């Protein structure tokens, strides 16, 4: 089937081993990052400890709804959207965490849509 040219066999072996290694690494990172909530727990813990905007929402006895906001002021129901709306007043730790997750989401969206490997 294959000619006796050793360079073709070496190239084929290299290509197959690279593909297997790539698949193993992608599957491992998907299992570790998707099914292990430690990354999300740690980031939530840091956000709760470091972000004064989230602490101020916890001390309010009533939860502000989007429909109850005064005209010209936008109060989101989701606290993450509130952090994104108030990006300039967030602490540096919050900016790093939100920046990491937004970058991960955007890169994953762009690379996956272009059929590039992304986990």
Give a brief description.
With 119 residues, this protein is an all-alpha fold. The chain is built from five helices and no strands.
Describe the structure.
The protein is an all-alpha fold and 119 residues long. Helices cover 66% and strands 0% of the residues. It has helices at 6-34, 38-50, 52-59, 79-85, 92-113.
Describe this protein with a few key phrases.
mainly alpha; 66% helix; 5 helices; 119 residues
Order of helices and strands: HHHHH
Q: Any idea what the shape is?
A: elongated
Structural class of the secondary elements? mainly alpha
- Which segments are poorly predicted (pLDDT under 50) over 5 or more consecutive residues? none
Radius of gyration, CA atoms, in whole angstroms: 23 Å
SS summary, helix count: 5
Q: What's the end-to-end separation, in Å?
A: 36 Å
Mean pLDDT: 76
Strand content: under 5%
Give the SSE layout.
Elements: H1 6-34, H2 38-50, H3 52-59, H4 79-85, H5 92-113
